[in-house]
Amino acid sequence: MFVRSTLVAALASFAVAKPQEPCRILPTDDSWPTREIWDAFNHSIDGRLIKTIPIGSPCHDPTYDEEQCNTIRENWHVPEFHLPDPSTIMNPIFLNKSCDPFDPQETPCQIGAYVPYVVNVTSIDHVIKTIHFVKKHNIRFVVKSTGHECLHGTFNRNWGIVDLDA
Ligand SMILES: *[C@@H]1O[C@H](CO)[C@@H](O)[C@H](O)[C@H]1NC(C)=O
Ligand SMILES: *[C@@H]1O[C@H](CO)[C@@H](O)[C@H](O)[C@H]1NC(C)=O
Ligand SMILES: *[C@@H]1O[C@H](CO)[C@@H](O)[C@H](O)[C@H]1NC(C)=O
């Protein structure tokens, strides 16, 4: 409980003190961190960096899986289906057809509107290192919102999700 509220406080104060600026870098920019830099960052936060795999990827080549794809299609409009995946924006409309499970199998799965990385923070150290990293590289970040907590965070006991947005 202590860890949880401290994490929330640390993230919330940062979010309030630093309103989003319009000119953050994008994965397509030259200054976007290289694979090596992401790996080093991942290492520094105990391997808690998660690369987004769009939820619809089993419906597309080369990761096509008919059974998984059918499950995804049947549940796509059920909000709860999207909940366990930290990088999924709840309403599929907002995904702007990024890796749409209803598109043909041969359509490439685009990362599109999904955030490229998320960090599953479990300690203040992870929070500090994440904030340091996004500031240093000028990356936009979003503390995941649950909709029913006033603070902008998804906090489940003692871990939280920080989206490193594009
Ligand atoms: C971060 O490191 C962990 C543990 O080594 C690994 O499982 C995970 O795939 C890495 N994340 C990324 C985005 O490379
Ligand atoms: C949605 O996707 C279309 C086609 O790829 C693109 O032109 C448009 O800018 C996207 N809209 C948003 C809000 O990302
Ligand atoms: C985040 O990490 C915690 C603790 O290791 C784990 O229980 C939880 O499932 C993880 N959440 C996600 C979304 O990966």
From TrEMBL:
Keyword field contains Signal: yes
Record's signal peptide: 1-17
A GO term, aspect molecular function: flavin adenine dinucleotide binding
Matching InterPro entries: FAD-bd_PCMH-like_sf, FAD-bd_PCMH_sub2
Lineage: Eukaryota, Fungi, Dikarya, Basidiomycota, Agaricomycotina
Name of the featured protein: Fad binding domain protein
Keywords carried by this UniProt record: Signal
Keyword Signal attributed: yes
